[in-house]
Amino acid sequence: MDKLLYVAMSGAKQNMNSLAISANNLANANTDGFKADLAQARSMQAFGEGLPTRVFSMTETPSANFASGPIKTTGRDLDVAVKGDGWIAVQAEDGGEAYTRSGSLRFDNTGVLRNDRGTAVMGDNGPIVLPLPIEKVEISQDGIVSVRPSGATAEVIEEVARIKLVNPGNQNLMRGEDGLFRLMSGENAPADPNVGLLSGAVEGSNVNAVHEMVSMIDLQRQFEMQVKMMKTAEENDRASSALMRIS
């Protein structure tokens, strides 16, 4: 295959990969606790016959943007936002522990405390299960979950669990295909008593919609340029064939 055609084809493919990252970020601009994926390009040599004199760009996602999103006050007792650095521990579908900043919580008909994605919230001893029926749920700054049983007087409040809050360091985390973060080592992070919650609020997405839109426009222009390069390679090939027929 002509090297020019290969480089242009590879560039177009990587532009499409970058577009997918930006499109996913834009689609989650309103997802509570979402952290935007970062994209970067790395130069790769095109090996083949002769010396590797051509290079192409390979798109990769090295990490996520861990900047905090905007805090949105809701006034709802089961909404919590992590203050500063830290994560809420949840149970992933595979049964393992994962971490999220999504703090819009609820409990199902069995009393399991879950976030808005249906993921069970972890306590010190596994998923948190509330004793039903209950009239009111409160979550303190240090993650203690307290409930008022149905029919109890206003002053009756019982502590039932503590939400596991961790701060393993963002550089040690990676995002899984389910959108949850995990330690690169595969281990579970220990609870950190210094991580606090803000009750009655949730953290919004940190996606900058304007930046992602501009990035998508730029990537589309680059894609068009790569397609033009492929057409140029085709025209050069036709001209070479014509010269060969003449000779």
Give a written overview of the molecule:
This protein is α+β, with helices and mostly antiparallel strands. It has helices at residues 3-27, 209-246; strands spanning 40-46, 54-60, 71-73, 80-83, 87-91, 97-100, 105-107, 113-115, 120-123, 126-127, 134-139, 144-149, 158-162, 165-166, 173-175, 181-183, 196-199, 201-203. Helix content is 26%, strand content 30%. Strands 5, 6, 9, 10 and 14 form a five-stranded antiparallel β-sheet that branches. Strands 11-12-13 form a three-stranded antiparallel β-sheet, with no helix packed on it. A hairpin with a 5-residue loop joins β15 and β16. Pfam families: Flg_bb_rod (PF00460), Flg_bbr_C (PF06429), LlgE_F_G_D1 (PF22692). This is Flagellar basal-body rod protein FlgF. Residues 5-35 form the Flagellar basal body rod protein N-terminal domain.
Task: Describe this protein with a few key phrases.
247 residues, alpha+beta, 5-stranded antiparallel β-sheet, elongated
